[in-house]
Specification:
The chain has 241 residues and is of the alpha+beta class. The protein is built from 7 helices and 7 strands; from the N terminus they run E-H-H-H-E-E-H-H-E-H-E-H-E-E. Bound molecules: coenzyme A.
Length: 241
């Protein structure tokens, strides 16, 4: 059994949603933003993630999935994964660089409206945000925007790793690195920098350092005494991995 990485197809969306939900179940940001577990609605959350994946595909974002396969390849895993072929065990979701001075394209503008419409439909269908603390969501958005305004010095923009997650049974087997390499290699060919924000300091900062990222700032989303730290990392083109 081996694992293959491929661009996300629409048929992969349910599996990719489940993978992200599993990979981030104990994530500090997730726990901070969905602060009342009794209100968390897994199905509402899945609908929201699916809407975002459709948006990502429609906007041609570089999104990759790692799938269990039966085919022989030279990337055999050293541990056995007891999951059926086709199961998605990793997702890497990036945004392409956006030139700071360029206005947003019409097609992205349309997709953003479509995403808002899908989310409104989800709010109605599920009678709310499924446990998302909306105030915290906007605190995070503002802190993230401030950090990017400060750190994104390259006017050509950055490949932004929005989400990378591997399910626990497939971690430490090179899946995360394969997902990251899909875009890091492209960024290197184009001479472009990459950026990410991790909500876990340990072990993630060390993992991303091995991929050539450097910690450039620690930021904090604070809602009263409850705070969530984010580790901002930048990778200059051509760094080792
Ligand atoms: C972070 C994450 C995506 C990494 O994916 P992964 O498949 O486990 O990582 P890989 O197996 O590709 O390992 C990449 C490198 O990090 C090292 N590494 C992996 N796990 C490690 C750990 N726990 N401690 C130290 N080093 C580790 C590997 O040895 C490898 O180094 P190498 O290139 O020298 O061989 C994955 O652990 C994950 O999904 N975690 C939970 C969700 C999450 O935190 N996502 C990131 C939010 S920004």
């Amino acid at each position: 059994m081996s694992i293959e990485v491929a661009p996300l197809a629409r048929a992969d969306i349910p599996g990719a949603v489940e993978c992200v939900q599993k990979a981030f179940a104990d994530d500090p940001y997730f726990r901070w933003a969905f602060d009342d577990p009794s209100k968390f609605n897994l199905h509402r959350n899945a609908a929201s993630l699916a809407a975002h994946f459709h948006y990502g595909i429609n906007c041609s974002c570089p999104i990759f999935v790692a799938k269990v396969t039966l085919t022989t390849s030279d990337h055999k895993t050293d541990r056995e994964i007891h999951l059926p072929p086709g199961s998605i065990v990793g997702v890497g979701w990036w945004y392409s660089p956006k030139v700071v001075s360029m206005p947003q394209s019409w097609s992205v503008w349309v997709q953003e409206w479509l995403l808002s419409f899908r989310q409104l439909k989800n709010n109605i269908l599920f009678l709310g945000r499924g446990g998302l603390n909306v105030q915290r969501y906007w605190i995070w958005k503002q802190v993230q925007q401030d950090a990017q305004n400060l750190l994104w010095q390259d006017p050509r923009g950055y490949y932004f790793c929005n989400v990378v997650g591997v399910t626990s049974e497939a971690r430490g087997m090179g899946v995360g690195k394969k997902l990251m390499k899909c875009v890091m290699e492209k960024a290197d060919r184009e001479g472009m920098p990459c950026y990410l924000e991790s909500s876990k300091g340990y072990p993630n900062v060390g993992i991303y350092e091995k991929m050539g990222f450097q910690l450039v700032k620690e930021i904090e989303c604070a809602d009263g005494p409850d705070a969530c730290k984010l580790y901002c990392m930048i990778r200059t083109p051509g760094s080792k991995y």
